[in-house]
Amino acid sequence: MKPIHIRDYDLLVIGECFVEFRCDGDIIHSETFEKGIGGADLVVAAAASRLGSGVQMVSAVARDSFHTFIRERLLSQGINIDHVVTSKGYNGIYFSSTRHPDVREYLIHHPGNASKNIIPSMIYDDLIENCKIVYASSELQSVSKAARHTIFKAFHFAHSNDIMVAYDPNLRLQRWSLDDAKECLWGVLPLLDVIFTSAPEETKALFGYERPLDVIGFLWDRGVHIVVVKTGPDGCLVGYDGKIEEFPHQTSTDAVENRTLIGSAFNGGFLHCIARGFDPFTAARFANGVALYKGIKSGGIDSLPTTDDLQMS
Fold it and tell me: Is it the case that residue 101 has pLDDT exceeding 90?
C-alpha cells in the first residue's frame, strides 16, 4: 500500500458519461442547443480536476458518433481516462434548460447502454491503492447489477485498506424504484466515510427523516464519519467528529441561472479540499463557493471554476 502522500491520484470516480444538450428556453420548443458532456458523476470528477486534484475515472464510452467527442472532452478537463473502456452500444444523452432555474429542468432522454459495460473486473487492487478517495453514486448503481457489484467491490477494498469512501445517494426515481435505491444504499452504507445527501425529500424517502440534524445523527449511529446534508438554496449542514455546523449559500449580486448538477459541483469541490487535507467544515464552505460559481456561470463543465476563478470572484 502506497503512503497517502505519494499516491498518484486524489480521487477515483466510478460513473457514467453522458452527452449533454443545453438550451435557454423550454426544451420541447427550443431549436438551438449547446453540446457538451455531463452526468452527475462526471461533473464531480471535472469539478475536482479543474480545481487541481489528480482525478481518474472508471467508465465506459460507446463507439457511436459521440465516442471521440466524449474522450477528448474528458481529457480537456485533465481527467485520466486510462480506465475508461470503449464498448458497443450507445452513449447516454440528456437535455437541460435554464428556463426555470428555481425548478430545474433536467430530462434524461436516452439513458444509453454503454455503462452496462462497467463491470467488477475493471476494479483491481493497484487502481484503488493509488488514490486517496473513491467516489460513486447511485446514478451508476441504477444501471445494472454488474455496475452495483463494481461499486461494492471498489468500496469494500477501499474500506478494508483505510482509503476514504464517498457516496451520494442521488435519488432519481425516474431511473429505478425506491426499493432498489434503498437496497443499494444499505448495501454500501457500512463502507462509507463520507455521504452527501439532500433534505428533505431524499432523506425522508431513504432514511425516514426530514430534519438535517436527525439525518446526521442517524448516519453517525451507522458509522458514517462525515455527513453532508444539502438543503438546496439554504446551503448545507455538515456533521463531523461530534460537531455540526451550518453553511448557508454565499450571497451574490449575480443571479443563479442554472441549478442543474450544482450538487455534483459541490461534491467535487468538497472532495478536492478533503484530499488536500482540509477539515470537512472548511471543505463545505469552499464547496458552496464552487456550486454558486457553477450556478451563476450556467453552461456545462467548462463553467466549473478553477482555483483562480474562485480567488477572483
Answer: no
Using only C-alpha atoms, the chain has a radius of gyration, in whole angstroms, of: 18
The β-bridge relationship of strands 92-97 and 34-38 is unpaired
Q: Which residues of 244-269 are buried (b: 16+ CB within 10 A; e: fewer)?
A: beebebeeeeeebbbbbbbbbbbbbb
CA distances from 48 to 111, 166, 301 (A): 25, 14, 11
Q: Name the pLDDT band for 107 (thresholds 50, 70, 90).
A: low
Which neighbouring-strand residues pair with 55?
Answer: 11
Between the alpha carbon of residue 283 and those of residues 213, 225, 238, 260, the distances in Å are 19, 14, 10, 21
Tell me the domains of the chain and their CATH numbers.
9-297 (3.40.1190.20)
Task: Give backbone dihedrals phi and psi of 3, rounded to 5 degrees, phi first.
Answer: -60, 150
Q: Which pTM was predicted?
A: 0.95
Judge whether 206 and 172 are in contact, CB under 8 Å.
Answer: no
Instruction: State the pLDDT at residue 169.
Output: 97
- Model confidence at 90, pLDDT cuts 50, 70, 90, reads very high
Distance CA 256, CA 295 (A): 5
Q: Which of 40, 98, 39, 49 is nearest to 70 (CA)?
A: 39
What interhelical angle do 145-160 and 178-188 show, nearest 10?
20
Omega before 200 within 30 of 0, i.e. cis: yes
CA angle 147, 43, 80 (to 5 degrees): 75
For 245-255, write each residue's pLDDT tens digit. 999 987 765 66
